[in-house]
Amino acid sequence: MSSQPAAGHDAEHESMALVLEHLVSSGPVHETGDQLLPGTAEHTAITPGPVSVQKHSKWWGRFFPGSLESAMDRLFASYHMGNYVAVRGQPGQKIFESMPIYVRVGMHLLFYRSKEQSFLRYKSVEDLLKTVSVRQGKVYDDESNPQAVLEHIQSFIKTYSINLDELQQPDPSQYPNFNAFFYRKLKAGLRPIAEPENASVVSSCADCRLTVFSDVAEATKFWIKGDGFTLNRLVGDTNLADRCFPPGSSIAIFRLAPADYHRFHHPVGPSMCGPTKHIAGEYFTVNPQAVNADFDVFSGNRRDVLVLNWTPKGEAGPSIPVAFVAIGAMLVGSIGWTNANQGSTVQRGDEAGYYAYGGSTNICVFPPEAKIEWDQDLLDNSKQGLETMVRAGDRIGISNA
């Protein structure tokens, strides 16, 4: 199918572009350029479903009363308009990941079915995703109106029940812009590292929704559906992929949602940092709705690739390469690295970097020689196409090398 819209589709395309712009900006950007204004905090694309329904969609309650909320969650999940996440340590317990109704519908139109059948067949819609992502990032970097900044931060805290006691800076008024709060730091010790003396352990790099697979081929069977996904494309270097990550490599996918603590940490150590490669790309969402569809999300999005030379038997042992990938997503303005200088040695749990506004994903790839054994509960959930909620520092596997 042609990537260009037929003449008869021009009106449809223009309408969808307007809907998309509303979906990703929803008030503050559309009306105020690159600045935040007071009174717009409850109209953002990161407002979750329950708040969106209560405040802006009173008609919804007339058709679907509160008692039917769980039934609607199941309906949205069955139509690929939302997703369930497993709660670790509570077998059989799942929660439905909430998002605004208009975002669910918009993502369904954008990402359900193949790219040729979705509105993303229009190149201008892809360009709009990138443009609005950058613009929204500027909005949340804006410091010109402290009142608006504080209002948005307070709304975010209330919406997502952020525990201020966990924060290094618990006073919301001390953050100069929304992004500064978004990639807020936690107090030391709140994310303890599992088995810190065992260099063979692999930890979660973030507070996230996690999937793990013993073989990349399994990941493409159960989770990553984009036909173009390969390790060559993911790391952006055929020689590196062929030399270090042959067939049989293991993979872990760490997806951060908007409410999560948005700093990520080194999953293994001790490790020596290699160079970081910056790869341009799209700004597709990393939500399962896109990952489970025919989109090259991970290998097509803007991303950074850091190679860690890990010594799972301690610094005196042989090193094993690990690809540590940070992937930008829909509405993510930037990826920042804070502790990944080439030639430096890092320990498991050390901060590596952060994401500005939005949700995004880290991926770790381990070669067969690492002999990674993922924790069984994570493997079982992943093979069911189910993510598991974990925290930074939690044990997720071990090397038997």
From TrEMBL:
UniProt record, GO biological process: phospholipid biosynthetic process
One function term, GO molecular function aspect: phosphatidylserine decarboxylase activity
Pfam families, per the entry: PS_Dcarbxylase
Keyword Lyase: yes
Keyword Lyase: yes
Keywords attached to this entry: Decarboxylase, Lyase
Coiled coil: none
Domain of life: Eukaryota
InterPro entries found in the cross-reference section: PS_Dcarbxylase
Entries under PANTHER family matching the protein: PHOSPHATIDYLSERINE DECARBOXYLASE (PTHR10067), PHOSPHATIDYLSERINE DECARBOXYLASE PROENZYME 2 (PTHR10067:SF17)
Protein name as it appears in the record: Related to phosphatidylserine decarboxylase proenzyme 2
Source species: Sporisorium reilianum f. sp. reilianum
